[in-house]
Write a structure and sequence with these properties.
16 strands; alpha/beta; 724 residues; disordered N terminus; Rossmann fold; 11% strand; 24 helices
């Protein structure tokens, strides 16, 4: 036999073995059905009868075994609550089988009569088994349906009770007779929605305007409301009734940092029914207002977290308050020390501007990017048959977040006006090119919302109230929405939110922790898209060198002092350099002979005149409008130099006005703040007094010379004279 023939023989033997193994497989653990059960019973009866006849077994034994089987199956059926016909059929099968076996043992099982009767018994057992199984399945399904009907009946009764209650309530409070079509309980268990049909000639606004009265009439808990909105058509309305205040408890930002997209929505918080609110900012701008202490800064971080998770968004941030809104998203990457072979972290935002100069660079770059995109991507938009630039990871959307940006737009400061003009140009021109803005403001006042561009473009609007009523005109922020009251959301981080997709209503922002910010920066480092080549070329060196050491040096300074509008930045003037205010360690070295000495002599002569004029005089009386005869210009009170006063003034008997008892603590806090100073709102939060009382006291202290007021528009602060 050749090697080839041997190989073929082995293959044929292997195939034969595979075919032998792949025959029918019996499942010995499976239960019997009607056919196999009847076959098993008849074969067992025949085997017992044949063996008993051959061995002269007493016939009574088979009858005893059959009776025992009938009794056992009857007891088991009763325990399982089987139907009576099922129990009777199984007991009869045992007794009939036992009777045939007893007869066959006596007369012999190998006769045609015995075999024929056995076959009839087998067919009868199989038929009875099939019938009882079908009956038991029908009984089980009927029991399930009966239970479901009972639950539905109970729910239906509850819904009918709710419907009747609210029909009566709406009639009593709103003078409208509605017809409730459905009542749907929320999956979160925090309330329900009523689908009601309105009477002819009425709109849902008539119910929405009485939301507060309906809530009070229903005795809803504080923070829960009954809000009416549009239904499936204009003749129907959906009334959301919250029964559990989901806004009361603080909820941290979801730990699932899964990828997001600006095209599919970015969550900013949750409604009173615990459902997330999705914001769609491909074409819309956003406006977030909230006074100090309302959770506005926390919400800015939540917004930045959503943008960081998106795979098609790059975030630019402008914060003239030392860049505080974006530092938390930049410092984890700057301070990260990668291990060998590990890639360095990328910041959570793509550009941060903390000064007016850097903001101008950023806005100029954005304008160039938008204009270049309009030219370079015309063929792409034509191919996609759209007038909007297709946004994706390869061409990301740029979201410009400006903290207190609405105040910049309304500021009268010369430098901020130039900045505001560029911001408005970005808002007005670059919607189609995928550049949108998120502005924040301290309140929804007429000065903030007076700009038509803000009202027209910022369709996503948020009002964080925190219980603050002053400066929160919800009617101006959400025109057309009625029944909104600040006291409905007295919790920090809670307020109202309206989008083009959902009407204004209660919501709450998640609490995002600093540790979560660091986690998001690390988790999304590889997810951030790169700026497309067309845009990067248009942005130029200003964008390419945004993370250079000299540009970000201030981020590592524990006390950053960014240049603020209104200061003379060109010639280095720092205000009066009074020798009386200088400590010995601050005294400059003796200048060389020349022009510097001449300047010092002039300064000494001026200081001498000041000491002679003011050093030994009493404190000017601000309450006396009479002019001072020794001054050439009677209307001016002159310099009030507290550093030139000596302790002997206290012995003259003329006591200065000390102010309220909390003022010394406030002055100490302002002194600790250094050259940055403190806003009146921050002082009010520290001492626990109203803002108006704090402003009056600080103004009086500034008039007495105990403080210095630095007027800088929305960033105006009070500074201690030692740091002025």
């Amino acid at each position: 036999m050749t090697a080839t023939e041997a190989t073929m023989t082995k293959q044929n033997n292997s195939e034969s073995q595979v075919e032998a193994v792949s025959g029918p497989v019996w499942d010995w653990a499976a239960g019997h059905g009607p056919v196999t059960g009847a076959l098993s019973a008849t074969t067992g009866m025949f085997a017992v009868a044949t063996t008993g006849a051959a061995t002269s077994m007493p016939p009574g034994w088979a009858l005893a075994v059959g009776a025992a089987g009938a009794i056992g199956h009857t007891a088991a059926g009763i325990r399982l609550r089987n139907a009576g016909r099922t129990i009777a059929a199984r007991a009869a099968s045992w007794l009939i089988g036992a009777g045939w076996t007893t007869w066959a043992v006596t007369d012999g099982p190998l006769t045609w009569q015995a075999l024929g009767s056995l076959a009839v018994i087998g067919v009868g057992v199989g038929t009875a088994t099939r019938s009882t199984n079908l009956y038991e399945e029908a009984r089980e399904e009927e029991a399930l349906h009966a239970e479901e009907r009972a639950v539905a009946l109970e729910l239906s009764q509850e819904r009918r009770a709710i419907a009747e209650e609210w029909i009566d309530r709406i009639q009593r409070v709103c003078s409208l007779t509605v017809r409730v079509l459905a009542v749907e309980h929320w999956p979160t268990g925090t309330g329900f929605t009523i689908d009601a049909e309105l009477p002819g000639g009425t709109t849902y606004d008539q119910i929405a305007a009485r939301a507060a009265a309906l809530s009070a009439d229903a005795h809803l808990p504080h923070g829960c409301t009954a809000t009416a909105g549009p239904g499936i058509h204009q003749g129907r309305t959906l009334i959301d009734v919250a029964t559990v205040n989901a806004l009361e408890r603080e909820t941290t930002y979801p730990a699932d940092y899964a990828p997001l997209s600006v095209l599919t929505g970015i969550p900013w918080g949750y409604r009173s029914n615990a459902e997330q609110i999705q914001t769609y900012l491909r074409e819309q701008c956003a406006l977030v207002v909230g006074p100090t202490g309302s959770g506005k800064t926390n919400m800015v971080h939540v917004i930045l977290a959503g943008f960081a998770r998106a795979t098609d968004v790059l975030t630019f941030v402008i914060d003239l308050n030392a860049g505080s809104a974006g530092l938390s998203w930049v410092l984890p990457a700057l301070q990260h020390q990668p291990e060998p072979g590990e890639r360095p972290l990328r910041p959570g935002i793509d550009w941060l501007a903390g000064t007016v100069e850097e903001a101008h660079l950023m806005l100029d770059a954005l304008l160039r990017i938008g204009k270049q995109r309009k030219i370079a991507y015309q063929s792409l938009m034509a191919r996609e048959d759209t007038d909007l630039l297709p946004i994706g990871p390869s061409i990301p959307q740029i979201m410009l977040v400006i903290d207190e940006g609405a105040e910049i737009l309304t500021s009268t400061d010369k430098d901020l006006k130039k900045l505001a003009a560029k911001i408005l140009e970005v808002i007005r021109m670059l919607r189609a090119m995928g550049i949108r803005t998120v502005l924040t403001a301290l309140g929804s006042t007429g000065s903030v919302l007076g700009n038509l561009m803000i009202r027209r473009e910022a369709k996503v609007r948020v009002a964080l109230t925190g219980g603050e009523k002053e400066g929160m005109d919800l009617g101006k922020l959400f025109p057309g929405s009625r029944g909104l009251k600040v006291d409905q959301a007295p919790y920090k981080g809670a307020g109202f939110m309206g989008t083009p997709e959902s009407p204004a209503g209660l919501f709450k922002c998640w609490r995002i922790l600093p540790s979560q910010i660091r986690e998001i920066v690390a988790a999304t480092s590889e997810r951030h898209p790169g700026l497309d080549a067309v845009s990067a070329e248009a942005a130029g060196e200003a964008y390419a060198r945004r993370w250079d050491a000299d540009r970000i040096a201030w981020m590592g300074n524990p006390q950053p002092t960014p240049i603020t509008p209104g200061h003379d930045r060109g010639n280095g003037r720092q205000g009066l350099n009074l020798s009386a205010l200088r400590n010995e360690r601050d005294t400059p070295p003796t200048p060389q002979a020349g022009s510097g000495s001449e300047v010092d002599r002039l300064v000494d002569a001026l200081m001498g005149q000041i000491d002679e004029q003011f050093g030994t005089t009493d404190e000017p009386d601000h309450s006396d409008p009479a002019p001072r005869p020794e001054l050439e210009r009677p209307q001016r009170e002159g310099l009030n130099l507290s550093a030139l006063r000596e302790e002997r003034e206290s012995n003259t008997g003329q006591q200065r006005e000390s102010g309220p008892d909390w003022l010394p603590d406030a002055i100490t806090a302002i002194a600790s703040a250094g050259a940055a100073g403190m806003k009146p709102s921050a002082v009010a939060d520290r001492v626990g007094r109203s803002r108006q009382a704090v402003r009056d006291a600080l103004k009086a202290a500034a008039e007495r010379g105990e403080l210095v007021y630095r007027d800088n528009g929305p960033h105006s602060v009070y500074v201690h004279p030692d740091h002025a």
